Amino acid sequence: MKFMTTYDLMETARNTNQWFGATARALGSYPAVAMVPSPLFRMVAAWGEVTERTFARMVAKPDWNINTVVGADGRDHIVSVEKCVTRPFGDLIHFKVHGRPQMRRRVMLVAPMSGHYATLLRSTVASLLPDCDVYITDWHNARDIPVSQGKFDIEDYTLYLVDFLKHLGPDTHVIAVCQPAPLALAATAYLAGEDPAAQPRTLTLIGGPIDPDAAATDVTDFGRRVTMGQLEQLVIQRVGFKYAGVGRLVYPGMLQLASFMSMNGDRHTRAFSEQILRAAKGEAGDHDKHNRFYDEYLAVMDMTAEFYLSTVDRVFKRREIARNVFSVDGRKVDIAAITDVAVKTVEGANDDISAPGQCIAALDLLTGLPAHKKASHLEAGAGHYGIFAGKSWRNNIRPLVLEFIDANSGDPQPARAHLKSV
User: Fold this and answer.
1) pLDDT at 1
2) Which of 38, 76, 251, 293 has an alpha carbon 20 to 30 Å from 242's alpha carbon atom?
């Protein structure tokens, strides 16, 4: 699999399907065919419209589309996205709300690097903006990063989080969603040992695999069945000639998307069939429910091979975080060294990706943290997506997280002056 031709063949297939869709849409939309009293051409055009959009968005990075937020004064304030720290594999970005007084809560969202862009947390950001000063990790697509920039594995990811936290200062509240939860915990422990003053005030871990063996899911079962050698041979590819990262070993986002789609194949097939019928009837809209969801879901990014493989090996197979034997840059990271940072875990009772028990395992590792600085929440009826972006997040979890932040904020202090972006 590790040949550029394999990657280029996959991209060729995607591009060809996009072209088929565009062609069918054009042929079915000619005014001349409207004279034929048959729904066939309308269905062809509808199929083409849905197919073209489906394959086109697989290689497009979604926009944040967060333009304004209502302030406490009742006015709409313009929101701009600004880079605070720039790095080859990811940036720390800030949602600057213009004309609004400095907010007391400063939140850093740690977005997953699991095949989707950070915009997967768009609704999470939008829900926090009225009450918080929001920053987020914006990871780059590995296919666009030249080989000359070197490697990027879970240790590098952890050190990126350390740098971002040092930049923001100690009056920061971290919310890590899904995949980065173990590494956000490790980054906090790293700071506890190396630079205690730079630790965040609170750490909220949402649906993350701190201990994958605490509860079995399809993800953990797959991790047990497949050897590292099989995984490397089956899914790792070299970026093709179309992108700046040509030659870089990656886990392609489209392979990840294929695995996502296969988990709920019947549901996705039905969703696209119904969308084609709606398009044929003229009932589909550019921003209807289907397109809003799939514009984000189908937009995938490649991960560096070393990040993907080290995640599977060290987090899932060897359980280095769960056993508290993780090391970064040759230094042992002791989670018990965290003694001042309040930690809260959030799990969904119906989460089939990071099942209940996996995330709350973090609290048992925090042997140096007083009990009153530990908290957990299990959301009844919530799946994986719902605990950070769905109705459960909006109605129940978000208020609890903000209460947890406020309860552990201490005396409000003026924000530290930001360092110049690197």
Assistant:
1) 60
2) 293
